[in-house]
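anyone seen this seq b4? input:
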Amino acid sequence: MTTIYENAANDFLELASEQRLNIIFKLLEKKSKISNMAKELHATVQEVHRNFERLTDAGLIAKDKDGFYDLTTYGKTMCTQVPSLLFLSKNRKYFENHDFGDVPMKFIQRIGALAGGQQIKGFVKVLELWKSIYKNADEYIYQIFTEVPLDLIQPLLTRVKQGIVLNYIFSESVIVPKGRKELLAKLGMKELLDRGMVDRRMKENTNVIVVLNEKEACVVFPTLDGESDMREMFYSKDTLFHEWCLDYFRYCWYNSGPFQESKIKE
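predicted toks r here
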């Protein structure tokens, strides 16, 4: 008796080929004849023909009356699932020591959206890129913080004073540096709050960091023991990557409570 797992296993088998994956993603861009695809892939016509037959038998592609092959609805849908495998495979080493923390399953199911991201390594490089995101903002800066480096506060509020809207979420267990309150007072934080240029909320024990403006984003996942790891992050200007981070921020925003300064310990 055929099971759902047997069918899925057969589908994985058809995709378990670099050339067949290449073919379906080329067809996602435009339909093609076998001879044209062979030239594009620098492969023999016979080899490409064999893989076209396999993909056709699997129901992933189909030939039209003019001899062009295109993805079926099934094939197009399968293409949306492959980026998740690509992201996890590409970052296998990273996820030996990290996990997705408190990210809901509905976002993990969309994790392929992060496939276009670049891995940034090194605490200094991470902080410099955050400052760059602040500098490049034209409309807003959104962020979820589990730890606040002191030297990020001034460049952040400087941009807010220039008209950029800041929304941020603190974990209730956020780590903040000594001297934070004094620096915020010096930089006019109360006035920015009163003017509505800054809005802030608090979420219980979140351990995933996101920082984004309207065109670029980054995300930091925690270590296996639940600690935030600001030594490595994923960054991109890719639209799908940005959308994932923005949707996750909004999800956290609407599931956060009021900001309570009394819960923050320097």
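Strands lie at 61-63, 69-71, 118-121, 140-147, 165-175, 198-203, 209-212, 217-220, 232-236, 257-258. The CA atoms of residues 5 and 19 lie 24 Å apart. kinda curious what u guys think
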